[in-house]
Amino acid sequence: MTRCAVLAGVSEKSGYIQKSLAGFYRFLLSLKGGSWTEEEIMIIPEGIDLASLKFLLRRVSDGKLKSLVFYFCGSKDDVRTENGFTFCGGEIKLQYIEGTLTHTAVFFDSCESLVSEDCKNEPLKDVFFERKPACGNDEVRQVAASCSLSVDSLRKKTGLSFFCGCKVGEKTLLLEDGSGFYTNVFIKSLQKAEKLFDVFAADRDAKFECELARQNAYAEFSVL
Questions:
Q1: N or C: which end of the chain has fewer CB within 10 A?
Q2: Which is it for strands 16-18 and 114-116: parallel, antiparallel or unpaired?
Q3: Distance from C-alpha of 52 to C-alpha of 18, rounded to nearest angstrom
Q4: Which of these, 67, 107, 104, lies nearest to 203 by C-alpha position?
Q5: pTM score, two decimals?
Q6: Distance between CA atoms of 100 and 62, rounded to whole angstroms?
């Protein structure tokens, strides 16, 4: 195994995970998410403390991994800090993760909507998430796997790439259903032909949409 994804949430209800975490998991399994296998993805739905995180990082740094993806799905009250973000009642500083592997991606978002843990295994109707291309061409699938959330995708920036839809001191935005605004826009952005497999372009799109949503919310609040 040359890559690993760790999806950490803050669900306090046994058997349930956050909706955004389930969505990100299924996205990784999809063609445009990199065709990850279930064996390459670790889900920690009930949170991870700093000691456990550092232990995990020591384990992966000793292996043959070339790329590592972290997705932290916090609560609605978590915020981005100057050095990282709050999570599970503490602060995850990016310096804890930086330097572990040559290519590392860290995503930070929030979600207050819980779904059954079985939901992550439900098939998605949207063609965007289909695991196999309609033409059934294995070569197309292999190209997609090498271009998305993998070493090839992250090679534009050696080291750690941080993906987040809020600025320092801000909370992450939520959709009406309680799921993460940034995660939703980021994944949908990769559906655009001109942004195909470009996670950095998708990140810029998602940040822009988050900022626009904040401005609109502020304008509506000011009128009232």
A1: C
A2: antiparallel
A3: 20
A4: 107
A5: 0.83
A6: 9
CB 107 within 8 A of CB 163: yes
Residues in a beta bridge with 109? 73
pLDDT of res. 158? 63
Report the DSSP pairing between strands 67-74 and 103-110.
parallel
Residues of the chain falling short of pLDDT 70? 62, 102, 123-158, 191, 193-197, 218-224
**Is 73 within 8 Å of 18 (Cβ atoms)?**
yes
What type of residue is 80?
R
CB 181 within 8 A of CB 174: yes
Neighbours of 139 (CB within 10 A): 9
